[in-house]
Amino acid sequence: MLSVPMPLSVLPESPVDLTIERLGQLGEGVASWQGRTVFVPGAFPGDLVSVHLEQQGKVLRGLLRQVVTPGKDRRPSPCALSGDCGGCDWLELDVAAQRSAKQEIVLSTLEHLGHLQRDRFTVRPLLVAPRDFGYRRRAVLHFAKGSLAYFGRRSHEKVAVSECGALTPVLAPLPGKLAPLLKPLSKDAEEVHLLAEGSKAAFAVMLTGPVTARHVEATEAAVRALRLEGAVLVPKEGSPRLVGKPALRSLSPLRPEVPIYLRPDSFAQAHAEANVGLVTAALYELAPRETDSVLELYSGNGNFTFPLAATAASVLGVESSPVGVELAQRSAREGGVANVRFIQGDARKVCDGLKGEGQRFDLCLADPPRAGAPGLARQVSALGVKRVVYVACDPASLARDAAGLVEEGYKPLALQVVDMFPQTHHVEAVMSFER
């Protein structure tokens, strides 16, 4: 006899009241309705909320209409835009509750997606960021009718912003000041990237086509008017056009004698102070010795490279971004660091090439983008790596790649969660493996 699947419940047209039970991996409140899981953006554990139910693909979401009774961890938002803006989705959640939720989200994701029980490795106390507001040294904005804007919560609707309290003091007023100056190129741009290092700031404009004289003129005028260090115009194809000196000089974490350069068209960790903790945690877990050769995948501008090189015999950094490699090589030259080498290329292809050459490494540190590093386990195993430290900005990618490492024979050792992004559900994690 064939079984007939039960039809999905017909969703009510009027709002329903739900009690939020926990927080999901993407920072949304999680509730139940007629045995189904409902994800409610903007809601927190203990909230009694009125929501409009909506089917989005396979997911049932509740669009928040009203917080009927707030939970004990809900607090007033310090930002007038927080109800619409998609940037700081946990602004109305108590900081202590944010921190405990982040630790639990990473652990539960490792358990449910990676099948790694938390009693199989050491769980270190959460590493807390020294500033939980006004800390972001980089931001991505979009043009919207003469203004610069963030994307809205779980949408591409644009929320205009003139000043942002999440940004460092030098960047906070920049969206409102920069927007009118960049109006001549607004129709030809996809994004504007802001970057700060201390009191210095720069920006990049990601264009939909080639760089024109009009773009350069407007950008030069904006740099002069706002007394910025410089800017980068990034065409759809071809090389970036630099205006002024957009590479901002900083110091290598744990190794201040080596300069580190940041550029607004290249990746940089958003929280400068928390980044020092992140690097410290990664080095502690990797524990390089003076005889070790280290393979660093997704090495960026050398954020981890130079602290690693202070102890290890050698470090080979692999990075796909030409700008990242250029900045890292500049740091090595100016800092006189001779035991590092950088290869520009796709991590997987470079690892295949290294394997073909018969190369071997003692240790590996990987800091992949949000999509993670599929195939990492086979790559490091083939290169003879004994210990791996994985730096993750997405719990699901960490869980998938951690499961792959365990399947390849690596034992999970320790997990360090780092609160790199206060007021948001985003989190950074450092996890170590050994065989």
SSE layout:
Elements: E1 16-19, E2 22-23, E3 29-33, E4 36-40, E5 48-56, E6 59-69, H1 95-112, E7 122-123, E8 138-144, E9 147-151, E10 158-160, H2 174-181, E11 189-197, E12 200-207, H3 213-226, E13 230-234, E14 241-244, E15 248-252, E16 255-262, H4 272-286, E17 293-297, H5 305-309, E18 314-319, H6 322-335, E19 340-344, H7 347-356, E20 363-366, H8 376-382, E21 387-392, H9 395-407, E22 411-418, E23 428-434
Parallel strand pairs: 4-6, 7-22, 12-13, 17-18, 17-20, 18-19, 20-21
Antiparallel strand pairs: 1-5, 2-3, 3-4, 5-6, 8-9, 8-11, 9-10, 11-12, 13-14, 15-16, 21-23, 22-23
Helix pairs in contact: 1-9, 7-8
Outline of this structure?
With 435 residues, the protein is of the alpha/beta class.
CATH class of the largest domain: Alpha Beta
**Number of structural domains:** 3
CATH level-3 fold name of the largest domain: Rossmann fold
CATH superfamily of the largest domain: Vaccinia Virus protein VP39
CATH architecture name of the largest domain: 3-Layer(aba) Sandwich
Major sheet attributes: 8 strands, mixed
Q: Tell me what portion of residues adopts beta-strand conformation.
A: 25-35%
Helix content: 10-25%
What count of helical segments does DSSP give?
9
- Average pLDDT, to the nearest integer? 95
Give the class from helix and strand content and strand pairing: alpha/beta
Pfam family, one: tRNA_U5-meth_tr
Protein name: RNA methyltransferase, TrmA family protein
Family: Belongs to the class I-like SAM-binding methyltransferase superfamily. RNA M5U methyltransferase family.
Keywords: 4Fe-4S, Iron, Iron-sulfur, Metal-binding, Methyltransferase, S-adenosyl-L-methionine, Transferase
